[in-house]
């Protein structure tokens, strides 16, 4: 029996990659630090680009993809509307997919999105028996004929044919494999994610809405972005999400603890938007306070994914190799592209073969470096993110 492919991390990219292996009946094991899929909040809703949808479809196949696509929300309408948060007036609109528009629409002229939690659960279906929960990978060791994952408690996995590090921005596999060449920078901008019942969004209408407040805070600006999907507006079981962000210095957390969730985060979001229009205030006033959560805006170097000596049995995907800001929605979609590419190369080879990781990394560096550059550029423009230089803090 062939050795399994070991996967560190049980996030979206890792699970989509695992599905490629599962369809081809290539053995694998996933090691996830959390105790279960519901261990922590799943985060905000993701907007899927054309490339992201293509990657998912190539992995799932036609029938399973149609089931997945049916679970996604689709927004048409105005596409992207810019609002003045102080007056509530619409400043301008750009149709989704129209001339000069933001690249929001991905299929059928629609903006397509799905929550992280829903997507993760869909990717996990049928793979449950190959996921090892409460296993945090801290390093790896090469053997004569393979590789083992080393866990935080000092124990080791069975020998695998290769190891894929997909455990996010704090990946230990990334640091070991790249010799510290891969760095994730703290751009100084901060944000709060929140959710509210659909009734709070009725004053906005359909579309993706962006609001910038550069008048209320002398330290900088505050922005909010949200997506209102009409087909779910009257469903009492649905909550829409929004993301509030601020340029460096605007959003301060108690004791600089940006991992706090719930009411402390909700209260800060409400205080930052106290002067906003009654058209927008319901999103904050009616938020589900327990769902509020801070986040930091981080990014890999906009100079691109660095080179490191290729190790045939170990590679990386997703945020572990190219962390991105939320600007433009590039991060998750690029990670899904990684999953599809690496999965295809392994499936075509019938399992692990020397040369696969080198071929994958060569192609991945090209599109991922461009995506990181675009993501950083948009964050610099939209959020006032700090310059990256030798003094910029890293994670």
UniProtKB/TrEMBL annotation:
Mind telling me which residue stretches traverse the membrane in this protein? none
- The protein's superkingdom reads Eukaryota
Q: Record's InterPro entries? A: FAD-bd, FAD/NAD-bd_sf
Q: Name one Pfam family in it.
A: FAD_binding_3
Which GO terms of the molecular function aspect are on file?
FAD binding; monooxygenase activity
Quick check: keyword Oxidoreductase in the entry? Answer: yes
Task: Give every FAD-binding domain span.
Answer: 130-374
Keyword line: FAD, Flavoprotein, Monooxygenase, Oxidoreductase
Cofactor(s) this protein cannot do without:
FAD
* Record protein name field: FAD-binding domain-containing protein
Species whose genome carries this gene: Periconia digitata
């Amino acid at each position: 029996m062939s050795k399994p492919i070991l996967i560190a991390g049980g996030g979206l990219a890792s699970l989509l990659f695992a599905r490629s292996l599962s369809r081809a009946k290539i053995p694998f094991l996933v090691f996830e630090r959390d105790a279960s899929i519901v261990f922590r909040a799943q985060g905000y809703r993701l907007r899927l680009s054309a490339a992201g949808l293509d990657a998912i479809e190539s992995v799932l196949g036609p029938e399973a993809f149609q089931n997945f696509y049916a679970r996604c929300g689709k927004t048409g309408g105005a596409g992207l509307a810019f609002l003045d948060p102080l007056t509530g007036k619409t400043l301008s609109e750009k149709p989704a997919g129209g001339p000069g528009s933001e690249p929001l629409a991905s299929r059928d002229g629609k903006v397509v999105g799905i929550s992280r939690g829903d997507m993760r659960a869909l990717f996990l279906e049928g793979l449950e028996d190959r996921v090892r929960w409460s296993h945090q990978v801290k390093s790896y060791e090469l053997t004569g004929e393979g590789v083992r994952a080393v866990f935080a408690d000092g124990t080791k996995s069975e020998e695998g044919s290769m190891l894929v590090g997909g455990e996010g921005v704090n990946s230990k596999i990334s640091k070991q494999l790249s010799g510290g060449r891969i760095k994730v920078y703290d751009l100084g901008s901060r944000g709060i994610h929140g959710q509210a019942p659909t009734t709070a969004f009725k004053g906005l209408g359909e579309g993706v809405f962006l609001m910038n407040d550069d008048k209320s805070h002398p330290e900088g600006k505050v922005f909010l972005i949200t997506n209102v999907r009409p087909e779910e507006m009257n469903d009492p079981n649905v909550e829409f999400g929004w993301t509030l962000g601020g340029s460096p210095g605007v959003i301060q957390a108690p004791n600089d603890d940006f991992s706090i969730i719930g009411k402390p985060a909700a209260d800060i979001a409400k205080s930052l938007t106290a002067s906003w229009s009654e058209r927008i205030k319901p999103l904050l006033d009616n938020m589900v306070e327990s769902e509020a959560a801070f986040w930091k805006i981080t990014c890999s170097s906009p100079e691109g994914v660095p080179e490191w000596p290729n190790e045939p049995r170990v590679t990386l995907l997703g945020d572990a190799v190219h962390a991105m800001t939320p600007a433009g929605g590039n991060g998750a979609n690029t990670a899904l592209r990684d999953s599809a590419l690496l999965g295809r190369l392994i499936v075509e080879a019938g399992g692990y073969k020397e040369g696969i990781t080198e071929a994958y990394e060569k192609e991945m560096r090209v599109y991922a470096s461009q995506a990181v550059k675009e993501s950083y550029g948009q964050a610099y423009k939209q959020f006032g993110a700090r310059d990256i230089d030798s003094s910029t803090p890293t994670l």
